[in-house]
Amino acid sequence: MSKRTIVKMPGDGIGKVVLEETIRVLDAAGFEADYVEGDIGWEFWCKEGNPLPDRTIKLIEEHKIGLFGAITSKPKDAATSELSEELKDKGLVYSSPIVGLRQHFGLDICMRPCRTYKGNPLNFIRRGPNNTIEEPEVDVVIFRQNTEGLYGGVEWSNPSEQVYDALMTHPKFKKNFEWCPKEELSVSTRIFTKKYTERILRAAFEHAKKYGYKSVTVCEKPNVIRETSGMMYKLAQEIQKKDYPNIQLWNTNIDAQMMWLTKNPEDYGVIVAGNMFGDIVSDGFAGLIGGLGFACSAQFNPETGIGVFEPTHGSAPKYADYETSIVNPIAMIESACMMLDFINENEIAAKIRKAVAEVVSEGQVRTYDMMKMPGRPDVVEKGAASTQQMADAVIAKL
Ligand code: NAI
Ligand code: MG
Questions:
Q1: What spacing in Å lies between the alpha carbon of 283 and ligand 2's midpoint?
Q2: Please, what is the Cα angle at 369 between 335 and 365, to 5 degrees?
Q3: pLDDT tens digits for 150-203?
Q4: Fold of the domain spanning 1-108+300-398
Q5: Residue 15 CA: which ligand 1 atom is closest?
């Protein structure tokens, strides 16, 4: 088989170090690939006025698989002030390159697994009957629609006459909002299309079937957001009935789901939601299994086979310049395992996951977050593992 080429995109801050350590782990696990580097992030915004240069887009078009660290984003004014002198008055507007990647390649399926590692001191525990302590085992995979909904970017402040007139055709708008001067109105739309709603639902059911989950939960708010959430739940009912009769379909509201998060997280299997509720519910579950040091994600387009794999954490600038890096590389390593699954290198993925699980359960090597220490440069002196030591420990298990 010909060797794979992976587009590695370290990005900014700790993205660079967690990606480098992850590639060491991939090498040690016997994954044979060539890596080409894709430029992305703050440096390219400042130097070129574009945090996602076209050459990076081309690399992904060609090689299809991207492994991404993290980027730094800053508010509009800060972004403009950090542009190099010759670019400052060109009217350039910063926008997040990771959102740009999602939109450019239509990476509509976002998958965020949250699985408990045995022995992780960050695992959620709760009080059981008679003052016992319970540590529920979470094994949830969240499927988040990644390109539409509230993050679709169709929004206005002081909308045009045409938009305003269109809104006025809705009886509820007329009744409840006509009092508001147009200049004082901001509107963000929540658009769901049947095609992409069906696609995220099918991806969720397929995953449940392939990996033996007993239920798929649609986590939205169909009783209030009748059109979009309602459409998703209705389609889910049809798909379940027709193609997945052996998988149970559950329906929860996002607000109640956040409450049940700590009550019975072990009951859920696959969860599927629109863009924003998927974002919320996946962060909620990630908190039960160790937080940002453990939260991984995949985003892909099933039609083109293009996928980008990344930890959900950001560039953590305050730790970026430490002489010895202290951040936890597990989220990035797990994201790489998702990449391996995506390209059918399941055996290597399983091997790496097993190695990580052993390191976590033995508890000899723990990064500062796992020791509940404040993140400071002296944590390694105090017994926490550095980023590199954690990767070394995983490699030793391999
Ligand atoms: P962040 O995720 O970078 O960091 C928040 C805090 O979480 C850190 O200070 C640290 O205490 C902890 N943390 C993060 N990753 C960790 C790891 N691997 N191990 C241990 N602890 C870890 O989020 P923040 O501070 O809100 O944003 C920093 C920058 O990152 C911003 O510019 C933001 O726009 C960007 N960002 C980028 C994302 C991406 O590239 N996908 C996602 C989130 C934020
Ligand atoms: Mg989020």
A1: 6
A2: 80
A3: 988 899 999 999 999 999 999 999 999 999 999 999 999 999 999 999 999 999
A4: Isopropylmalate Dehydrogenase (3.40.718)
A5: 40
